[in-house]
């Protein structure tokens, strides 16, 4: 049986942002692809969610659709959903794939994994909001997230973002079950080599976060944090390379 | 109005060395490109220049030609000219682009940013010269600067180099105005991933120097320190990516 | 006179594993290529060899075939053979090329250059064997060595591996002659950027081992530790780039 792919988006995004990647995966014969939107994400939804609420929304999705043999792909913030889902539904998961995604150490929160200056900027945006959310400033998006786009694509994709609930970034995750059983499941890390949403060097995605997965298969491609928008064809090929047995 | 590109060459080079890059930029519709030669560089010119003399020569060029809305690109040593020019003419500059270029910390000189063994070798070459200049040894050029060329191209380009005045490498730059206002201007760093003119690791161009620019847009390409000779077409495409809004 | 290439395989391999690289080198006009098998490697041979036995087997090969003007390429473990061969036959060697290969510091052994957890795993495999050899587990091969292959290629190439004698990994090499004369010979390091056979970061092939060669020419390509199987055409092109004057 060919595997089922479940793609978990990052902060400010929804499942719809994977559309071009889904199209490209089909050219590789991968057609059983799910792109649920995490609780609290998108427009017109309650934003006062915890990290557990976010996890539960995807657990519910997987159970409702009775998904098995799942290659679970998480982008950025979505990596924390991947790790927690493996704790909740280990028997339904075939492989974990992190795409420039957070791999938290035990009892850390997402904020612990961003440089202090970025953390302070994001928290001040949350404080300035009416509903404890963080809206993505265009300049940050254009320079740090999607530097490989032309300005038109940067503007168009920025218009599709939605405010990110701040609380899930503060919630600490024990992840004891995750780290106790991590070596029982296949693990891959996809690293976009021009991704500076987290600065390269001391805080880098790779090898700092990737190594927490204990030697995951490494797949790299050129591009920014947002290759799902800037190069969905290449990204899909790399997801295939990362997701296969 | 489309921007004006000003390309600042590195040590041992002159503005003429950008010729193939200029041709390649034209294929991207970028035709307003200036490649002045920094004071003290090239043949038949006085070599007893300071770093300030070098900066002043480019300030004069920009003013004489009344250049505005400038995307300023600096290669290697030329990065220090870029930083200083932004101090002198901030209102004429649209974006700063560093191509495996030095970004000095406050009050450093260029020599502070090279490993001690390389620094000693360069200084001994200056001491051995009649006019306090450093001539590029062929072996250093071939192995450390242009390792991606075949030997014929390495020889041909080496023949076009000229002795580098040593004093600008010793002059310390306060750069207080630069660092006070750096976040007001767009910044990009182009990193050639096989560049070992500065060894990779502890002394590397990226992320060590790039991070001094506070999260510049990152653009990378395969190649040595001398992609302006070895792959001008690809380099031009990357300059476009780095230089656009 | 065009140079003679001698390709030294890594652990678990034999000279026959270079076959597709040899074919690809011929398209670059490089036809004088030797791929001897190191003592103790392959099937049906005595496994109780020391590192010196391994070196001697290649010294003998070079002398028997009276090879001169040799570009010596070593992969992985084969890097230690390259370094020792340069000590034994310096006048016959034109250039040293390391392909994700071990460059030992003075008086180290190969085991010193692998992370403790990997070292313990390999030693326990040796202890479990009847003849002090290490057989490659499929999961280790597939995930850490050849992650860029599909599973069919991973299985086919795994079937061709043979048990690695453990003693050469424990033998310490003085390498005093090597480091005394290293700057007299051309040196290149080829780094496959997705190679995680040694984890990236603290223990990485590049720049940790490459820098011991004192600024070798750097050549990089995408791929795992086993590009000789997964991308022999690209690897051959990079060997040409690394091996030329």
Which term fits the overall shape of chain A? globular
Q: What distance separates the N and C termini of chain A?
A: 12 Å
- In the CATH hierarchy, the architecture of chain A is 3-Layer(aba) Sandwich
List the uncertain runs of chain A.
none
Task: Give the number of helices of chain A.
Answer: 10
Average pLDDT taken over every residue of chain A? 97
Top CATH class of chain A: Alpha Beta
Helix content of chain A: 25-40%
List the helices and strands and how they pair.
The structure is a homotrimer of 245-residue chains.
Chain A: E1 4-8, H1 19-26, E2 33-34, H2 51-64, E3 70-75, H3 78-88, E4 93-99, H4 116-128, E5 133-134, H5 138-145, H6 151-159, E6 164-165, H7 176-181, E7 186-192, H8 205-209, E8 217-221, H9 227-230, H10 232-243
Parallel strand pairs in A: 1-2, 1-3, 3-4, 4-7, 7-8
Antiparallel strand pairs in A: 5-6
Helix pairs in contact in A: 1-10, 2-3
Description:
3 copies of one chain form a homotrimer. Chain A has 245 residues and is α/β, with parallel strands linked by helices. Chain A has a single domain, classed as 3-Layer(aba) Sandwich (Rossmann fold), CATH 3.40.50.1820. In chain A, 37% of the residues lie in helices and 15% in strands. Chain A has 10 helices and 8 strands. In chain A, the strands form 2 sheets. In chain A, strands 2-1-3-4-7-8 form a 6-stranded parallel sheet, sandwiched between helices. In chain A, strands 5-6 form a two-stranded antiparallel ribbon. In chain A, strand 7, helix 8 and strand 8 form a beta-alpha-beta unit. In chain A, helix 1 crosses helix 10 and helix 2 crosses helix 3 (78-88). The mean pLDDT of chain A is 97. Chains in contact: A-B, A-C, B-C.
């Amino acid at each position: 049986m060919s595997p089922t792919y479940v793609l978990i988006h990052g902060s400010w995004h929804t499942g719809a942002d994977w559309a071009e990647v889904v199209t490209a995966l089909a050219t590789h014969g991968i057609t059983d692809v799910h792109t649920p939107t995490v609780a609290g994400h998108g427009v017109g939804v309650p934003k006062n969610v915890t990290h557990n609420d976010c996890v539960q929304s995807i657990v519910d999705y997987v159970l409702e659709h009775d998904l098995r043999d799942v290659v679970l792909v998480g982008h950025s913030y979505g990596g924390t959903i991947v790790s927690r889902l493996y704790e909740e539904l280990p028997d339904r998961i075939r492989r974990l794939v992190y795409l420039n995604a957070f791999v938290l150490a035990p009892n850390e929160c997402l904020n612990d994994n961003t440089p202090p200056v970025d953390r302070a900027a994001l928290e001040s945006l949350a404080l300035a909001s009416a509903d404890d959310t963080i809206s993505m400033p265009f300049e940050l998006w254009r320079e740090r997230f999607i530097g490989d786009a032309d300005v038109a694509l940067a503007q168009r994709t920025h218009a599709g973002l939605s405010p990110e609930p701040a609380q899930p970034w503060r919630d600490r995750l024990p992840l004891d079950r995750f780290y106790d059983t991590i070596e029982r499941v296949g693990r891959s890390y996809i690293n976009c080599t021009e991704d500076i949403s987290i600065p390269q060097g001391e805080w880098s995605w790779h090898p700092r976060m990737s190594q927490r997965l204990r030697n995951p298969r490494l797949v790299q491609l050129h591009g920014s944090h947002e290759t799902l928008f800037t190069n969905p064809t290449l990204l899909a090929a790399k997801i295939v390379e990362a997701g296969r047995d």
